[in-house]
Amino acid sequence: MSFSTVVSAATEGLAVEFVHVEADVSNGLPVFHMVGYLASEVKEAGERVRTAIKNSGFDFPAKRTVINLSPATMRKRGASFDLPIAVAVLTALGELSGSRIQNTLIIGEMGLDGSVRKVPGILPIVAEAKEREVRRCIVPEENKAEAALVSEMQVIGVKDLKETIEFLKSGSKPQKVQQTGSVQERETEESFPDFGDLCGQKNVRRAAEIAVAGGHNLLLIGPPGSGKTMTAGCIAGILPPMSTEESMEVTKIYSVMGMVNEKQPLIRKRPFRNVHHTATRAALIGGGMIPRPGEISLAHQGVLFLDELPEFKKGVLEVLRQPLEQHCIRITRNYGTYTFPADFMLVAAMNPCPCGCYPNLERCTCTPAQIQAYLGKISQPFLDRIDLCVEAGRVDYENLTEQKKGEASAEIRMRVCRVRNLQKERYEGKKIRRNTQLEGELLKKYCALGTKEEAMMRQAFERFSLTARSYHRILRVARTIADLDGREKISEEHLSEALGYRMVDKKYWGR
After folding, report:
1. How far is CA 2 from CA 49, 93, 487, in A?
2. Which fold has domain 3-170?
3. Distance, CA of 342 to CA of 293 (rounded, Å)
4. Concatenated DSSP letters of 349-418
5. DSSP characters over 221-270
6. Is 167 exposed, middle or buried (0-12, 13-18, 19+ CB in 10 A)?
7. Beta pairing, strands 303-306 & 345-350
8. Cβ(47)–Cβ(111) under 8 Å?
9. What are the structural domain ranges in the chain?
């Protein structure tokens, strides 16, 4: 047999594209020619594959070898095509029967000695292979546990080219891979600050609980040392566990980025991404010449924390407006559009002025112009997308020396999980999971107001010049507060508290 085809795959953003590796070996000038719209690292595979085949003990006669990676319209990047190219060449040389590679996806990078090395993006590739009814996948040994997260798929982990060919020849059933994504899997312990150690700040603690319970965006304003950053760390400790579906969504993103743990690949804890204020727009939303997910996608189903919010460039903050509404980011290039998920909870912290002491005029050393310029870095459209804005006051000496601890994170997390489960049952069969996702008819249905509540909201809307977006966000927050209170209907008390979290930004921005 002088011609063979091996199925492989590559990731384009988070999407998976199947690639057919075709090999033709015939008499002629001894060349190794590769075509198919290849990046430089793929073109270099020719030298790696030829050397690896020889060093693995196989004969490579001096013949004309042509490799085509189709479809030709798709740019091929990375070193993950090394192993399928080698298998295709050896099949074309008659080392393997073509029937042995049918309905099999092969992927992996190779060293010059024939060893197979791990590659990123294995989980989404194997998941897509299952959707296309591929029967088995041959992957690097180091990627085996990650690939095994996809149920009902035969996963074969190989260490080198020789082992790959021996398996394809014998067809012997490999040792069963333990499903590392099982419920009994031991989670890696992580240490987060505890709300019990947060001195004072009862209002901040309450706002954080509401925010996590409904998945709302939270802004903390206060002087330096008031516990804003610690509060964000405490929030990471009260996040509810992810469902299996959510875990797979997050793990696929981290797989493409090459950030999964080899031994425990399934990510079970919600991400908490703390982004430094020097981050660029591309680092935050993703992009580059080869579009890759950014921090907002790495925070999918978790928390994106922006400390020292006004220190971020205004243009960087403004690009968050669309993802905060649509829960995804679309990056357009000349050769296509890439969509990355970005369903995250935004937590931000900031000082009220450059010195951090405003509105305490006795301590504040900033001029009115400096304060206005500092606060002016946060636009009204961005503030409209914040559900709760809470002030963290200066911590008193009595609070610091108080022996009695506050409520622990474990107790708060129990209430959060109860409310999240309530929302899950309420929205079962719908395309939403949390109160913050309520829109349209669902918002009217589950945030219906009585006569008194309607009058209260009308008065607040006119008095505080609320926008339609901020009005709806107040209703969603009130829905979460009612859930925490165990109430079916939203009352004036719930609306009053929700409105209170909108008044802090009015105090500082006055608009």
Report:
1. 17, 6, 73
2. Ribosomal Protein S5; domain 2 (3.30.230)
3. 9
4. EE-SSSSS-TT-TTT----HHHHHHHHTTS-HHHHHT-SEEEE-PPPPHHHHH--S----HHHHHHHHHH
5. E--TTSSHHHHHHHHHTSPPPPPHHHHHHHHHHHHHTT-S-SSS-S--SP
6. middle
7. parallel
8. no
9. 3-170, 195-431
From the candidate CATH numbers 3.30.70.980, 2.40.50.200, 3.10.129.10, 3.40.50.300, the one assigned to the domain spanning 195-431? 3.40.50.300
Write out pLDDT tens, residues 85-143: 999 999 999 998 888 899 999 999 999 999 999 999 999 999 999 999 999 999 999 99
The dihedral over CA atoms of 174, 175, 180, 184, expressed in degrees to the nearest 10, equals: 150
Report whether pLDDT(190) > 70.
no
**Residues β-bridged to residue 11:** 16
| CA–CA dist 335, 75 (Å, integer) | 10
* Higher pLDDT, residue 185 or 476: 476
pLDDT of 225 strictly over 60: yes
Q: Which two tokens stand for residue 91?
A: 């099949």
Q: Are 110 and 182 in contact (CB under 8 A)?
A: no
Q: Going by DSSP bridges, is the β-strand pair 286-287/292-293 parallel, antiparallel, or unpaired?
A: antiparallel
Q: Please check the confidence at residue 434 and state whether its pLDDT lies above 80.
A: yes
Average pLDDT over every residue of 489-493? 95
Could you give phi then psi for residue 7, rounded to 5 degrees?
-90, 130
- Report the share of the chain in percent with pLDDT over 70: 96
Look up tokens 């060449």; give the residue: 89
At 388, list the tokens.
């709760």
Contact 14, 51 (CB under 8 A): no
Cis peptide leading into residue 352 (ω within 30°): no
Q: For 80-197, where are the alpha helices, taking DSSP H only?
A: 82-92, 122-131, 144-147, 161-170
Please, which residues have CB within 8 angstroms of residue 62's CB and are 6 or more apart in sequence?
Answer: 30
